[in-house]
Structures are given as structure tokens and as C-alpha cells.
């Protein structure tokens, strides 16, 4: 089963479709600034759970973030968990530059 993922900027989300079907199988919603993309919610339709739709959404979104030189803020638990299991993407994570004063 092939999963096609595309960015739909006007909806502020990535959409996944399976096997060329018009039905959206899953979405990853985001907020984007010129330097940062925050992934805030991911949802996969029940019929497609466990079929790799969520992973395809995350991998495509992160690969595109890397290509655009964006830092990633993973507020969505699915994104955060996926990145924790894939260390090759951890360099994308946003790190606060603020310093705590004593």
C-alpha cells in the first residue's frame, strides 16, 4: 500500500492519501513561521491506523522542514514520540536560545 503525502499550506496541514484514493487517510496540522514549523496535531483515520500513514506524514513533513532549513517544534505527542525513536531527525528540534539568569 503506497502512501502519498502532500503539503496543503492553505489548510496549514500535511495530508496523506493511500493508494491514489481521493479520501484523506490522515493529517498533520502545523503552524509555520519563517524559521520554525510547529506540529500541533496528527490524526489518522481508524481504517488506516497501523498502516504507516502516520509515519509517512511525519517523515515527509520532517524531510521538507530539513530542506527548507526550518527548526521543528513537536508539540504533537505523535511527532514527539516518532522523533524520539528516530535519532536521525533529532537535529531538527528547536532549542531555546534564551539563557536563564541567576
UniProtKB/TrEMBL annotation:
Keywords: Acyltransferase, Transferase
PROSITE patterns: GNAT_YJDJ
Domain (N-acetyltransferase): residue spans on this chain: 6-94
InterPro entries for the chain: Acyl_CoA_acyltransferase (IPR016181), Gcn5-rel_NAT (IPR045057), GNAT_YJDJ (IPR031165)
Taxonomy, superkingdom: Bacteria
Pfam families cross-referenced by the UniProt entry: Acetyltransf_CG
Name of this chain's protein: GNAT family N-acetyltransferase
Originating organism: Streptomyces parvulus
